[in-house]
Amino acid sequence: MANIVNLDRVSKGYGAAGQLLTDVSVGLDDDARVGIVGLNGAGKSTLLRMLAKIEEPDSGRVTHRRDLRVATLPQTLTLAPGATVRDLVLGTAWLAEGMGAEHEWAGDAGVRAILDGLGVQGSLDSPVGSMSGGERRRVALAALLVREADLLILDEPTNHLDVAGVDWLARHLLGRRGALTVVTHDRWFLDAVCTATWEVVDESVQTYEGGYAAWTLARAERQRLAAAAEARRQNLLRKEIAWLRRGPPARTSKPRFRIEAANALIADVPPARDTVSLQRLATTRLGKQVYDLEGVTLNAGPKTILQDVTWQVGPGDRIAVLGVNGAGKTTLLRLLAGLGTPADGTLRTGSTVRPAFLSQELAELPGRLRLLEAVEEVAKRVRLGDRELSAAQLAEVFGFTERRLWTPVSDLSGGERRRLQLLRLLAGEPNVLLLDEPTNDLDTDTLAALEDLLDSWPGTMIVASHDRYLVERVTDTAYGLLGDGRLVHLPGGVEEYLTRASASPQGLAPAPAGTVAAASSAAPEPTGMSAGEARAARKELARLERRLAKLEGQIVEINESLAEHGSDYEKVVELDARLQAAQRERAEVEENWLELAESVPEG
């Protein structure tokens, strides 16, 4: 490993936003894969611009290795007027900050693979001027990926990508040489791609090993040891950890003895969601009927979204709707919200259904009001599950400080307006939630708070989202729109969707079949180890794990004895020597376990 970028005691601030970074020192190695997280407005994008030397610090120094090639995807794009996809991807029409005009690329097949992977449709000669913002952003990302670079800096690269596109991008970046820094709120992507996490908080940058799950665990442990501050926030983190450990397998790669230690930390935390109780409450609020579709055909202009579909949604159902961009997810949600009609068939809605539809637009927010007034316009007190909150308390849950409550809605940032939109939606106390891309513009802490609220929300929920983490966290079942007019039940969730989409004759999936997790689990056994050697190595791993368990028990016993004989000086000296010896042996055995575990194939 070689160091390629260094920030030495860097500080940066702006007049309106105030001080963002103070005396920050961090560095990047040539194979670093760093995910950058933090609250909206904390300074994540500013940090990226300084890493790329696009923006200079107020004080301190940023140094690059000589001849370092940096490619940057900023949040705001500036593209040459009249440029085509070919101009941007292969030519010299890219004008965004941090991108040079010279390209090295692997030929048309490689370029086409990247364009297909990102879901860029049409000819290379298609003009970008008439494209949507999402299409233009995907073209810009493709322009970066066809180039060779020593450092790739990406600001929200998963925006406007569907689930399959995010999966393809993760696998592409895992196979790409060079360093990577990425700002994203997609927590699945952070876990899949990143080996380190930087948290921008309180004008500083805290560094952690591992992706989102490891960062969540480490941050919770750091707060637990620091003992005390922000009890409500700590409880939320502990609940998040409980879901991480009890949810989908293989969410982290920690050894078994470390997982046991993490489970001990959360032993008193209840399950993230009491499904049985929520189903019972939902039935009480909704009755037995929510939505019944019989033989429904649904169109979006000339395109057929559903063809003769029969589908039933019941009380307490928590459903994810998956599909590529343009598959019709929004059209389906609008139908259920009463904002559209089927071309054929029947939609019956339960008489007690009170839906709330979260659109992707922000136009319905009252810009003339202040934040708290905008919430109280809907309700001054809100009951969510077994909790009753004032409008101000609900705003606090969504990350709005007391000082921010009197800010005019028109002055809020995009992320803050999205949070307010969600807040007003829940303040209306609906019994059916229809959420269209609810995670857009939300930071990871706000997402965790939202998920905590949804865990105890007793109603029916239908979510259309490309956020894989959210889908797996708050829903219980998934359906897919695969482009053939069917709404397909997916018992296997996102994994099954990716497999089905990849195999679809319509070619909906932008990448070959398989996912990051599947590719990892299907990796061939390391060369140079015979089957007999592999069996012997696994036996040795098992022996080391038994030894570790025994040492852990000895350390607990010694600590108990130390507490018991605290006034006996000679006994304490003897026990302390035994304790240090046991701890040294444990460290040695752990190191041996880790080295051996890296070379032994799964089996």
From TrEMBL:
PROSITE patterns: ABC_TRANSPORTER_1, ABC_TRANSPORTER_2. Keywords: ATP-binding, Nucleotide-binding. Residues 509-528 have a biased composition (Low complexity). Residues 5-229, 291-510 form the ABC transporter domain. Residues 505-536 are annotated as: Disordered. It comes from Mangrovihabitans endophyticus. One of its GO terms (molecular function) is ATP binding. It holds the Pfam family ABC_tran_CTD. This is ABC transporter ATP-binding protein. The lineage of its organism: Bacteria, Bacillati, Actinomycetota, Actinomycetes, Micromonosporales. PANTHER family: ABC TRANSPORTER ATP-BINDING SUBUNIT, ABC TRANSPORTER DOMAIN-CONTAINING PROTEIN.
